[in-house]
Amino acid sequence: MYDHPIVAIATPLSPSAISVIRASGSGSIARVATRFSRARALIDAPGHTVVHGMVVTADGAPLDEVLVTVFRAPRSYTGQDSVEVSCHGSPAGVRRVYAELLSAGFAAAEPGEFTRRAFLGGKLDLTQAEAVNEIVRAQTARAHALALDRLDGGVSREMQEIRTRLIAVMARVSIQLDYPEEDTGEIVLDPAEIKGVRDRIVAAAAGFERGRLYQEGVSVALAGRTNAGKSSLFNRIVRHERAIVSAEHGTTRDYLEARIDLDGIPVRLFDTAGLRDSSAAIEAEGIRRSRQIIASCDLIVYVVDAAQGMSDDDRARLDELAEARPIVAWNKIDLVPDAAAAGSSEADASRYARVSATTGQGMAELHDAIVTRLLGDRDTETTGITIDSERQYALLNRAADALDEAVASLHAGMPADVIAVDLQDAIDAIGEITGEVASSEVLDAMFGSFCVGK
What we know:
This protein has helices at 28-33, 39-44, 91-103, 113-120, 126-137, 141-151, 154-178, 191-216, 230-238, 281-296, 312-320, 363-375, 390-411, 416-434, 440-447, and strands at residues 6-9, 16-24, 49-56, 62-71, 82-89, 107-108, 218-224, 256-262, 265-271, 299-305, 327-331, 352-354.
């Protein structure tokens, strides 16, 4: 079913030096050869070799000068005969080459179909297949490295070890089910052994929050009164003058957004309009929009003018935001004689960072405060693995719940067949994570989220 020849444009359709069109499936090399100026050289080419020539129409008219890389089964990404055509990156030219290959008998690939074939061909398990998509979507080097570890089998190995231990426990229960005449009346199982496996599963599930943090990122808003220096701080954080800075109140009349990499965490940083009552219609609208942004962000950095001190208005705003636990940045400490004392008299002084957007003083302190708040205890997983898949997270929780039931049944003296049901459910859940147990519906949903060409 999944060996018919398929083709897809694998690179974005935008002007570039090179674009890649990939093909895979039975007869794919021969089909490309029907639209190639050096057909015999391509048909005879060993795997992992490159052939130079022209893509031509069925009538022999040249379309583009290309390099064709040949991959012979099973030594290819999909495990099938495959071809990658590297052509010039003109979107119009790429479309012409792609259309010609479709006319040669290729079907247009579905989203994720190449990786689906790699999974079905035993080249990858499901955790590795999901990691392929995560690598493509990674926004930072840290997210890319974590996804690459998953592609390398980091999650797979952990799941295999857990499943092996569960199968060993299940084997001892199965003996009593298979040979009831030898039943002693008790199942020789240690609840602590099952709990140990369960704790390992829970530790793996704990890596979901960290994986999501690095993969999906967070939003952070700079909030505060007018002229507290939010825009200057915004420019300092993003490292270029993005926001207009002025001594005039109400300069920022709408929010600005920038994307930054904060210790590997993708952050959408917002500079919001100064919070105050304004009769100016445009400024009032900007403040309204800024309040919406502030309410939707994962973290708020409330900026206070250290030269003026904490005002009653600041305290009122912070009371409004108390549930969000904002970090308070005392800005302009270069204008304060005793910078170390700024904010020290306030309650929960640990929430405060002392900075100067002008000189850069204290920026490392603010950086650390933000990262610490975002990570929380997410960086302390005992297994060291991270996951970014809601599917995997749900299955890990299902396995942990099943083992809780098994331990409870064991303590209650329940018969072997009752305990076996829960153990098997946990084994199946772990098997679904790696794809040893997988339905076509699950595969359709998972690979449907991939881009075409991957």
